[in-house]
């Protein structure tokens, strides 16, 4: 976690009670998805081997979609919705591949860290900003 993330985390610990803070951490992991397993702190808690960590890094590196080139003068901007769809598809595919790297025991630990599912709503895009 970067310095800013650590500072934010420390401030939240002062504001939230223990139950709220635990739920915040669960929801944060749900939002990040299985790619959070590439973080050292999470990989350590789940008990990943160095070989598993390397596989996860490789999945994330190879599974990153190539962004479209910036538009040239007079060209239309890239389709934001299409780009989001490609990113979501890549995230889902990478997540499935990452979970396949885990043993049954590790997957159980990961699921325990996620807590009860929280369903996120995608923000609506303002059509006037297209």
Please explain how this structure is put together.
By secondary structure, this protein is mostly helical. Helices cover 62% and strands 0% of the residues. It contains six helices and no strands. The protein has helices spanning 3-15, 18-32, 40-46, 50-62, 80-101, 104-114. The two termini are 34 Å apart.
Helix content: 55-70%
Approximately what portion of the residues adopt beta-strand conformation?
Answer: under 5%
Q: Report mean pLDDT, rounded to a whole number.
A: 90
Q: Could you spell the SSE succession in H and E letters? A: HHHHHH
What spatial form do the alpha-carbon principal axes imply?
globular
Unreliable residue runs:
none
| Rounded radius of gyration (Å) | 18 Å
The rounded distance between the terminal residues' Cα atoms is 34 Å
Per DSSP, the total helix count is 6
Number of strands: 0
In short:
This protein has helices at 3-15, 18-32, 40-46, 50-62, 80-101, 104-114. It is mainly α. It is globular.
Features:
about 130 residues; mainly alpha; 6 helices
Describe the secondary structure blueprint for this structure.
Elements: H1 3-15, H2 18-32, H3 40-46, H4 50-62, H5 80-101, H6 104-114
Helix pairs in contact: 4-5
């Amino acid at each position: 976690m970067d310095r800013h993330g650590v500072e934010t985390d420390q401030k939240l610990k002062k504001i939230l009670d223990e139950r709220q803070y635990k739920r915040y951490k669960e929801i944060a992991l749900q939002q990040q998805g299985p790619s959070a397993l590439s973080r050292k702190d999470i990989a350590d808690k789940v008990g990943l081997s160095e070989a598993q960590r390397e596989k996860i890094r490789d999945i994330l590196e190879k599974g990153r979609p190539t962004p479209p080139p910036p538009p040239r003068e007079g060209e239309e901007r890239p389709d934001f919705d299409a780009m989001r769809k490609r990113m979501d598809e890549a995230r889902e595919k990478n997540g499935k591949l990452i979970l396949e790297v885990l043993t049954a025991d590790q997957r159980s630990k990961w699921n325990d860290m996620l807590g009860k599912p929280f369903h996120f709503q995608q923000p609506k895009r303002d059509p006037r900003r297209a």
